[in-house]
Every structure is written in structure tokens, then in C-alpha cells.
């Protein structure tokens, strides 16, 4: 699984000859201005929740690629009514896709669209593909539900929000890493806006002191699991 960082919480995941785009928010992110969304390929678009900083570029990318939009029932219905292709799920459900297997797990957050439409309840996901397993926490608080994940999965990477204010912060993310039993963490949802700015070197050191690795990618950089 090759995971490329497109800024904020947006990732490109390539596995089994398929490309997934997670939570596309690029055209509204000045830090990601080097990325042209019209060049992005996506067989699937994976959405954790309906907030603008996770769905802004869904329609452009889906239109360009005829992508299948995967999310909760409400978000998928919203896009299906606009003519897009989708696959709705709900908490605790799993499904096999052409890229691998996906499970929708709990996230403690909210999920309205910018226009006020109900975006259902927020998801995290566990992706299993090519014998690798990755947890995408989505926007979430630290929650005891994370302890369910290692009862069923042996994770190779946990993608956790670390910016605070809207989600858990760096300190809580180290506890989340313990809860999901994965010491290799890719940090997301930081530095995009003033309320979620972090001190990157301090964050990396904080993880290191707890025998964990915090990976912070520059926009366009990738990590392979
Ligand atoms: Ni959010
Ligand atoms: Mn967010």
C-alpha cells in the first residue's frame, strides 16, 4: 500500500492496481496549491464525514474519474442524488471492494455538510489490502472504542488526527496508538488552519519518547506499508 499525503487529511492510497482518494480537500488548502485536482486519478473516493475540509473536491474528482464514493449512508445518498456512484456503509459493517476489504468503525465527531444537510455520523475505517492493514481514524476524539480494533486487526499503520481543537491532539494520539496497538502513526489534520497548528519537531519527539514513530509527510510525499 502506497500512501501519498495531499495535505490536511487528504491521502492517495494505491494498492492492488486501484487508487483511493481519502477526504479530498485540496483546492481550498493554500498549502496544497501545487496539486492540480484535475490530474488526480481515483477509482474510489473514501469519505470519513461531510465537513467541508473533507469533501470540498469530491465532486470534481468523482466527475473526472467516474469514481465510486464510499461513505456512510447519508453522505452516499447525498451524492447519488446528484448523479454520482456510491457505496453506503454504516458503523461496524465491512465490505470487499476491488482494492481490498474495508470496515467502517466509530469516530467521535460530527458530520454536517456546509449547506446544512445531514451528513450522518462520522466514520473511521480499517483497510485491509495486500496483506497490510491500515486504520484511518478520521476526525475523532480519543475514544475507548479504539480498543476494539486490535481485537480484530493487527495494524501496520494508524493514520491519526493530531492537531487538536476539532480532534484529539498529539498527546492523545499517543494514547490512541496504544489503544489500537500500533506504534507507527501517520499524523494528519494539523497545521492547515491556525487552531490546529502544532510544533512538528516536538510532536515527533513526544512520540519517540514513548517508543512510537510519528510520520509527518510534506505534501506530495509518500510512505509505503
Ligand atoms: Ni470534521
Ligand atoms: Mn476536519
How many separate domains? Answer: 1
Structural class: alpha/beta
Low-confidence parts: none
Number of strands: 14
CATH topology value: Metallo-beta-lactamase, Chain A
Largest sheet: 7 strands, mixed
Topology as a string of helices (H) and strands (E): EEEEHHEHEEEEEEHEHEE
If you had to describe this structure to a student in words, what would you say it looks like?
The chain has 225 residues and is an alpha/beta fold. Helices cover 18% and strands 29% of the residues. The chain has a 7-stranded mixed sheet with strand order 6-5-4-3-2-1-14, with helices on one face. Strands 7-8-9-10-11-12-13 form a 7-stranded mixed sheet. The chain is built from 5 helices and 14 strands. The protein has one domain (2-224): 4-Layer Sandwich (Metallo-beta-lactamase, Chain A), CATH 3.60.15. It binds nickel (II) ion and manganese (II) ion.
